[in-house]
Amino acid sequence: MVSILAGLTILIIGDSHLATPNYLIGSLHDNLLKQGAKTVHTVGVCGSTPSDWLVATPGTCGGAERIGSAKTVVTGSGAMTKPIAQLLASDKPDLVLIVMGDTMAGYTKESFPKTWAWQQTTGLVKAISAGGTKCAWIGPAWGSEGGKYGKTFARVELTSRFIGANVAPCKYIDSLSFSKKGEWATVDGQHFTAPGYSQWANAITKALEKP
Fold it and tell me: Most buried in the list 108, 148, 151, 171, measured by CB within 10 Å?
């Protein structure tokens, strides 16, 4: 059975979950190629938020990039986002995947920054969908509570619901539905161990293959 991803040119942009070789830039990128994608281009910049992808913006904690079956290139302290308009023009993707949520949650803030988050999501979605490019927004996964980022299950659930309600016409992929709270081990509450990223990538791939 041929995957609906076969023959597609896919662009993936996002935050730190794409910025280390054994994170989603490894497992998800590989999965899409295995499903027959014509090419996959992944760019991850640690700490980036959606609006950072409208103009070239320096990262705060490194980044990485990978094209096709090549190895991941870690960009380190010189990491910078690439404007989405530039990426759309050069890659001409059939599908854009956005991996962002944790950097929008404001885990250490008393309340969720709703107005700011709305501006962030709608600005990037508009820039991608204006030309008719299909897109899917991959929301945050559970992780575990605490750690250096102060992640909580209540806030990640609120963040996921909010993003899901504000990214049309992009498809929303609810990563919270893929596992139980705390099921995938993390190294710091937010970033998973390699097996967790592999499970997340497998679940994302299955979700993308549904019509």
Answer: 151
